[in-house]
């Protein structure tokens, strides 16, 4: 009997421990789900308040929206903005993001530009905008030299343009990191978007300090990309197209283009694109604007007041800023550009760099 009693006691202890363990497991599981749900809810609320991908109205906390993923945020903004109400579309790289849509007087423009934007992407994003009801009468296209540079890495693909649902995006830790960086003021670029979704330059951005240097690797042009502009033109066959080469520091032109042997073939590519688009300006020609270091914060992106001058020219105002490519033949355009480049080098005491 004593032996039986010991067995019973042992069994009771095991049953008690099992029941206690099961109870504690349920308790901790409940705590886990409560904490997880609370964390997800907090993540969603923070992301919604900061709105780094512009699913709502943008950053409600500081009013500044950083360029973490402009392709997504601008697509979200387009979908919210009744695309059919726009009669103008702007496409380009980060240099074109600084062009304010509100500065255009003749049309209501949507600026669909984004960092490192390539011509292949412009074609697909233009098709997407068209599918959402945007029927522009005017299309402005930023034409960057890197589209024709063979050393530029090939584009892997455009991928899906439609943004993921908001509940997937804003319950994400990756987006929470964007929100945290936004609140702390850590921008990936010296610019941000205001509450009207137009670019502004961050105050106290370090001043541009231009210098001449020699690039070790020369390059050559990829003329096949010119065909992509025909594809873009065909997306909106009824629209008037205006192309333009964004302003670039004259030092950058020397270092990144002329010094790498890309000037002649690059100018020819611009000229060929001008024949496709019909009207095209080149603001990269060395001038009093592009040779003044105060007009740009990094040599590649120019301040809003210069962008406003670009807008005026694009809308037809007569100015000595830039050159209208389609008014020249290729020989004249090339001679004019290289004359200005030579004048700039000589003025800066760098005439020895001139190779013709």
Question: Can you walk me through this structure?
Answer:
The protein is α/β, with parallel strands linked by helices and 356 residues long. It is 44% helix and 9% strand. It has eleven helices and eight strands. It has helices at 2-50, 70-80, 94-97, 119-131, 166-170, 173-184, 226-235, 250-257, 263-277, 304-314, 330-347, and strands at residues 88-91, 109-111, 138-142, 191-193, 199-201, 240-245, 278-282, 323-324. The strands form two sheets. Strands 2-1-3-6-7-8 form a six-stranded mixed beta sheet. It has a two-stranded antiparallel sheet with strand order 4-5. A hairpin with a 5-residue loop joins strand 4 (191-193) and strand 5. The longest helix is centred in the first third of the chain and has 49 residues, at 2-50. The chain is globular, with a radius of gyration of 28 Å. The model has no long low-confidence stretch (mean pLDDT 90).
| Average pLDDT number | 90
Instruction: State the oligomer.
Output: single chain
Q: Residue ranges: pLDDT <50 for 5 or more in a row?
A: none
Which class of secondary structure composition applies to the elements? alpha/beta
Distance between the termini: 113 Å
Strand portion, in percent?
Answer: 5-15%
Q: What overall geometry do the principal axes of the alpha carbons give?
A: globular
Largest sheet: number of strands, sense, barrel closure: 6 strands, mixed
Measured as a percent range, the helix fraction is: 40-55%
Tally of contiguous helical segments:
11
Compute the gyration radius: what is it?
28 Å
Q: What strand order characterises the main sheet?
A: 2-1-3-6-7-8
Helix and strand sequence: HHEHEHEHHEEHEHHEHEH
Strand segment tally: 8
């Amino acid at each position: 009997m004593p032996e039986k009693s010991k067995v019973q006691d042992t069994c009771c202890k095991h049953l008690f421990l099992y029941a206690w363990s099961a109870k504690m497991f349920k308790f901790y599981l409940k705590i886990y789900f409560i904490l997880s749900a609370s964390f997800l809810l907090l993540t969603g609320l923070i992301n919604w308040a900061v709105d780094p991908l512009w699913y709502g109205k943008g950053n409600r906390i500081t009013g500044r929206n950083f360029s973490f993923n402009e392709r997504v945020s601008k697509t979200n903004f387009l979908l919210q903005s009744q695309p059919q109400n726009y009669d103008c579309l702007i496409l380009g790289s980060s240099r074109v993001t600084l062009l304010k849509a509100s500065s255009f007087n003749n049309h209501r423009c949507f600026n669909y530009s984004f960092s490192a934007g390539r011509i292949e992407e412009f074609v697909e994003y233009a098709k997407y905008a068209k599918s959402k009801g945007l029927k522009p009468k005017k299309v402005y296209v930023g034409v960057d030299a890197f589209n024709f540079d063979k050393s530029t890495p090939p584009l892997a693909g455009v991928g899906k343009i439609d943004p993921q649902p908001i509940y997937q995006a804003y319950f994400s830790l990756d987006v929470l990191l964007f929100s945290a960086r936004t609140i702390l003021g850590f921008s990936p670029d010296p610019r941000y978007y205001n509450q009207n979704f137009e670019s502004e330059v961050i105050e106290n951005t370090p001043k541009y300090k231009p210098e001449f240097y020699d690039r070790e690797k020369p390059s050559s042009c990829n003329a096949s990309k010119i065909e992509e502009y025909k594809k873009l033109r065909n997306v909106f066959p009824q629209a008037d197209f205006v192309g333009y080469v964004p302003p670039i520091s004259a030092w950058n032109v020397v270092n990144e283009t002329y010094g790498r042997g890309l000037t002649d073939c690059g100018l020819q590519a611009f000229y060929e694109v001008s024949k496709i688009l019909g009207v095209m300006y080149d603001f990269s020609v060395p001038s009093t604007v592009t040779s003044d270091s105060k007009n740009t914060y990094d040599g590649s992106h120019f301040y809003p007041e210069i962008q406003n001058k670009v807008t005026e020219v694009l809308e037809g105002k007569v100015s000595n800023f830039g050159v209208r490519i389609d008014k020249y033949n290729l020989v004249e355009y090339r001679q004019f550009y290289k004359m200005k480049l030579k004048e700039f080098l000589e003025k800066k005491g760098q005439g020895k760099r001139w190779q013709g």
